[in-house]
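Structure catalogue
Derive tokens from sequence
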Amino acid sequence: MHATHYAKQLVNLFPNNRLLLEELVDDLLVFADADSSMTSGKVKFMKEVVLALNFNERFFGRVLRKHIIVSNPNPFILLDISKDVSYVDLKKRYRHHVKDWHPDKFSGAGVAPELAEIAREQFDIYSKAYEAVKIERGFIREVKK
């Protein structure tokens, strides 16, 4: 049987317990991302399950973002670098982090739109952190607007 069938059974078993079903969605996303990175196939499957649990697409997008997007206000922590990082090491770490999130990788057919949007957001987060560190370390001068 397909997972959506079981999801519908859970809705029937717990019709008034949305909190439990939300926790289940959170746990499923943790599990889906634990063994390997999130793929379009996983996103599509998870979306089907979440919709079968009577949640809407907006809820799915919000929960997916929470589980995938890595965000840290400290760019040194986000990029996993020391405060005295060299320019060469900074560039290596930045490239290491963005290689899996480059928008070109998610522009092809068959990519779940939710995943493509999250990839763009994640790429932007790392790019902003990279620029912030370059400015702070004096590798470039801040451009005045």
